[in-house]
Amino acid sequence: MYYKIIPLFCISAFVVMTACNNHPDKTTASQQKIQTTAISVDTSENVDADTVLSLDRDNQEAVYKPAKAKEFKTAYNQSFNFSFELPTLWRAIDESTIGDGYYIFTGKKFTDIRIYGERITPDNERVLAEVDSTVFNKIETFVFNDGIKGLKLSGRQYRMFVKDAGKIRVSLYIKARKRWLDQNEIYLEHMAFSIKPIRSTKK
Predict the structure, then answer these.
(1) Calpha distance 104→90 (Å, rounded)
(2) What is the helix (H) or strand (E) element at residue 41, kind and residue range?
(3) DSSP symbol at 39
(4) According to the model, what pLDDT value does residue 127 have?
(5) Are 159 and 189 a contacting pair, CB within 8 Å?
């Protein structure tokens, strides 16, 4: 069910995944800002009827636990061994047939946010992402809260974060209007930073 990016060129061996066992908690200015900033997507003054999305009752919602920051909650994917935090006003909905991840429901039709896992195999282990260069024009290293290095891919209306941990790759894919991305960048990055394994696994 998840979006497959049209491959135009491959990023091979771009980054070596490493874990830092003594990685300190982040106390950056951006995380401090989260404590005092309202989520713009749900408080926008430009809410039109045609931008409001309703949920299909047949879809399965994640079970949440509280996160450290009160503006967030934690969702879990047992099948692919990852958890992540999302804003409390957003919802994680399982629309897949194999339980590999969630569609993030923000209430707006123009947002397409998905987080999903896949097993790393000999065929894909050296390729972190296949990228359409007309969509993603910037690629940089991204360090997650647990110290593992991955990728952040950016474009005018797109973001993607890719993390390899053990035998699982987790991807967070975002497509939305540029203004909305700019307004909500801090929340999207918080979601990405928070991706981590639920339980330790042997490599």
Answers:
(1) 7
(2) helix 40-43
(3) -
(4) 65
(5) no
The answer, yes or no, to whether residue 4 has pLDDT greater than 50, is: no
Comparing CA positions, the residue from 153, 147, 158 lying closest to residue 193 is 147
Concatenated DSSP letters of 76-125: EETTTTEEEEEETTSEEEE--SS--EEEEE-SBTT-EEEEEEEE--TTTT
SS (H, E, C) 163-177: EEECCEEEEEEEECC
Amino acid of residue 42: D
**Amino acid identity at 65:** K
**pTM score, whole prediction:** 0.73
Q: Are 117 and 80 within 8 A, CB to CB?
A: yes
Sheet strands side by side (includes 64-66): 64-66, 72-77, 82-87
